[in-house]
Amino acid sequence: MSTPLTHDQLLHAYQVMRTIRAFEERLHVEFATGEIPGFVHLYAGEEASAAGVMAHLGDDDCIASNHRGHGHCIAKGVDVYGMMAEIYGKKTGVCQGKGGSMHIADFEKGMLGANGIVGAGAPLVVGAALAARLKGTDSVAVVFFGDGGSNEGAVFEAMNMASVWNLPCLFIAENNGYAEATASNWSVACDHIADRAAGFGMPGVTVDGFDFFAVHEAAGAAVERARAGEGPSLIEVKLTRYYGHFEGDAQTYRAPDEVKHFRENQDCLMQFRERTTRAGLLTVEQLDQIDKEVDLLIENAVYKAKSDPKPSAADLLTDVYVSYP
Amino acid sequence: MNRRPLTVGIIANPASGRDVRRLIANAGLFSSTDKVSVIQRLLAAFGATGIEQVLMPTDMIGMAAAVLKNSHSRQARSSHWPALEFLDLTLRQTVEDTRRAARLMAEREVALIAVLGGDGTHKAVAAEVGDIPLLTLSTGTNNAFPELREATSAGLAGGLYASGRIPDAIGLRRNKRLLVCDAGRGLREVALVDVAVSPLRFVGARAISRAQDLAEVFVTFAEPQSIGLSALCGLWLPVSRQAPGGAWMRLDPQSPEALLVPLAPGLLQGCGVLAAGPLEPGVAHGLSLSSGTLALDGEREIEFNAHDRPTVTLDAGGPLSIDVNAVLAYAAQQRLLAIGREHPQHPLNLQEDTPGE
């Protein structure tokens, strides 16, 4: 269960959420210029989920993400400039510019990769959790998938295997209400994704994904279980995305004031600021200072990424295949 | 000609029964499928007791959709479900959905509202509906206010009451409540069972399941056989639902006196007891902590700090609820469920359908 967060942990949580927000808001602007290749799927609005879960993980704990992976990468500690350069397809990117938004990975940070295949991260973390078990470490492995991913067979198979082998896994279902343009209340048969855990013999809970503290507390309990050898858990985090499925999505499937309502009433950053300052744990000045630092970080990352070189033709086959001696 | 149909409401909390206590205790799941079954049992019982129309809110998790789909089933036809009307709400997937559904039902002057949920859901409905009686059904985790009982018999009791066959003096029960007020913040909230003062600073995952997270508890009633905070007082200083007063306890892990309490399903915790006593109606009590959270009916809801001055007051202004046991005992005594030869369920009328006849 949760112990009270320290002053530094609170500041870190805010810095992570604010960095994700600023990163995504900036990409929203930059993508419209046509300079960024491929697709981007923005995580803005969902920050409390990544920050709340990752607060319990270290570099030895692995995560696997999905197509909406920027937030998970930032919260797991992947370098922001390296990510931005990767998204711009530049040689200085964390994957040398060959992956782009949907394939950002950094093994040193325990980030097994964003993933363009819906639900495909789940079997990967079962492998990572099995590795931790066989090595005898207390590491855990965490997969993030969406309400669409929750309907994938690979996710069911992974949950089954994790439970059968009692592996230290967390299945985090970020339910933002839509799989692309398909509403989850139409397409998820048992309605509550958390309810599916019962079918795999693991606990499943639903938490408010707008509230960092709610996610942090539930994830803490699940990580503690996993590290203690008590097996996997499923956490359904209910939240919303502020932008379309991908940039360019006109979102005609959403009510006109839906996003406005969430931004004005439940926004995770707004809530975090109000509650930590009201409780006298952080000051407005401290938070504003983080805002400034983050803005500068993002500004520099974009500036450098834009001017960095692209991979050359000679780089085509490097870092692609494993070379066995 | 223009007689209004005999109408009742059903409000089911789509979110209840899946909080963090599945991770930190052995709480079970109350799935949406189970809730749909409970609603359908109520509809059968309401149909059998002459209720003509049922109002229900829509929801984002498909409960109303499943009920609508099943309303065309053979079972629904043979048990003469009342006509269903779904309230048109803009859903926000928060407790506000429950409150708005309750307000719309009150405007439509329903004869009663069946509530499926935990203490928190009942509290939200009660705050909006004045003296419309509640038929309470537990589909939550740690519940003291709604009773755990079979929905078919609860539905019969509700239907008999709503159709005017049970005197109020027998069928209704007035409940107590706790008012949490802080004039400086414009705060006025209601709890039906308990208010707990916790040193935890944030609402977080809401549930309270550790003795060390409790500093003080106020209860409207406390039954030894319950679970959660009501059980804490119930095992030390029991108070019945009918008694005019309530109880309070102050807790501290350092206290030499301790009590073993089922704080959540499967979770027994030793709670250090500093002091306890009766809670008189109408007296506003300050809190023993200057900052922390207030849990109303088991869920942390209000964060308070040194500059806040919340108080807790017991009063008798809680909602009316149907006393299912008393209604059904009266129904047995008066043979209210005896049916005549003309009733479609009379065994002589069912024989025509028997194969081979």
Automatic annotation (TrEMBL), chain A:
<keyword id="KW-0786">Thiamine pyrophosphate</keyword>
<protein>
    <submittedName>
        <fullName>Thiamine pyrophosphate-dependent dehydrogenase E1 component subunit alpha</fullName>
    </submittedName>
</protein>
<dbReference type="InterPro" id="IPR029061">
    <property type="entry name" value="THDP-binding"/>
</dbReference>
<dbReference type="GO" id="GO:0004739">
    <property type="term" value="F:pyruvate dehydrogenase (acetyl-transferring) activity"/>
</dbReference>
<dbReference type="GO" id="GO:0006086">
    <property type="term" value="P:pyruvate decarboxylation to acetyl-CoA"/>
</dbReference>
<dbReference type="InterPro" id="IPR001017">
    <property type="entry name" value="DH_E1"/>
</dbReference>
<dbReference type="Pfam" id="PF00676">
    <property type="entry name" value="E1_dh"/>
</dbReference>
<keyword id="KW-0560">Oxidoreductase</keyword>
<dbReference type="InterPro" id="IPR050642">
    <property type="entry name" value="PDH_E1_Alpha_Subunit"/>
</dbReference>
<feature type="domain" description="Dehydrogenase E1 component">
    <location>
        <begin position="17"/>
        <end position="312"/>
    </location>
</feature>
TrEMBL record, chain B:
<protein>
    <submittedName>
        <fullName>NAD(+)/NADH kinase</fullName>
    </submittedName>
</protein>
<dbReference type="InterPro" id="IPR039065">
    <property type="entry name" value="AcoX-like"/>
</dbReference>
<dbReference type="GO" id="GO:0006741">
    <property type="term" value="P:NADP+ biosynthetic process"/>
</dbReference>
<dbReference type="InterPro" id="IPR011391">
    <property type="entry name" value="AcoX_kinase"/>
</dbReference>
<dbReference type="Pfam" id="PF01513">
    <property type="entry name" value="NAD_kinase"/>
</dbReference>
<dbReference type="InterPro" id="IPR016064">
    <property type="entry name" value="NAD/diacylglycerol_kinase_sf"/>
</dbReference>
<dbReference type="InterPro" id="IPR017438">
    <property type="entry name" value="ATP-NAD_kinase_N"/>
</dbReference>
<dbReference type="GO" id="GO:0005524">
    <property type="term" value="F:ATP binding"/>
</dbReference>
<keyword id="KW-0418">Kinase</keyword>
<dbReference type="GO" id="GO:0051287">
    <property type="term" value="F:NAD binding"/>
</dbReference>
<keyword id="KW-0963">Cytoplasm</keyword>
<dbReference type="GO" id="GO:0003951">
    <property type="term" value="F:NAD+ kinase activity"/>
</dbReference>
<keyword id="KW-0808">Transferase</keyword>
<dbReference type="InterPro" id="IPR002504">
    <property type="entry name" value="NADK"/>
</dbReference>
